Amino acid sequence: MQAADIGVVFDQDLTGKTHSDLARWKKGGLDVQVFSVYCDGALKKAYAYANREMDSLDAVLARNPGKIVKVASYAELMKAVKQHKIAAMFGVEGGHMIENNLNKLQALYNRGARYLTLTHNVSPNWATSAADETNPNPVIGNGLNAEGKKGLTAFGKQVVEKMNQLGMLVDVSHVGDQTFWDVIHLTTKPIIASHSSVYSLVPHRRNLKDEQIKAIAKNGGVIQVNFNPGFIDSSFDRKEAVFLKEHKAESDSLLKSGMDEWYMMTYLYKKYATEAEAIRPPLSMLIDHIDYIVKLVGVDYAGLGSDFDGINLTPQQLNDVTAYPFITKALVERGYRKKDIDKILGGNFLRVLKANEAD
What we know:
Distance between the termini: 31 Å
Structural class: alpha/beta
Number of helices: 17
Helix content: 40-55%
CATH architecture: Alpha-Beta Barrel
């Protein structure tokens, strides 16, 4: 929730400041919004910060009961949609926020969190992230967990088992390969990759390899493609590097002043909007990732995981949440039928949510 970091609330008009706000969700035809409870993996008192973010959204809900309502189950979600309200659901992005405590996992679930991304980029000591497993200079020792290996520790396995018991979706976006396979071999419920794309098209550490995509399909889960340009366009990193080289003196100065790298990039993209526009990938590249998953394993396993307000540049046409109809139009033009488009636009996620609730 970048909104918490920049001090805005979603029932204001945030056009030009964020990708999302309450009025624009309705304008974009959105029925359900899963809010990412997020903080940096190095932040101390991460659990308390997660709760403050939840408090912030709860305050928005309390002010707008006729427009948006928090839901914690498939039945509650469908009821909200039938009432023409936006169904709001929490997901926690980063296992570090449970602070190695299953009671805190339970408490976040009790507050409405319905998925947990096991790692963010910085690994908790019980699971290794994609960043740490692939980084020659990892944040944790040698990219290993507290047991001196990659993947889940004994406690990490307890986390997955507890989530299965609760009906809380296990999210494998951001996790390393070994953590992924440990999850697949352990979980008794369908999993999600909340915001990952296809490695075969763009070999980024955050994307899923073909065998991982097949494993998620076999598990009955869903892969929700990420709109991040670096995940969907194999030439983007090179283009971004050229952009940064052009503005190196300014970017170095901003970083030296203490500005976070993410916000530095956001600032530069807005300041040099014409140059930024030139390196945005076309919408067709995002659809290519959906196509790839569908052709590999079938339409039942593809979805959307925009990462809006978590990325600082988006594909062309997808300027904010009002642009979702462009995706629908692009899928129609690719020959997708209505029932299959409905699955991609959220039906597959709802299936997995419901399956996790089953005993």
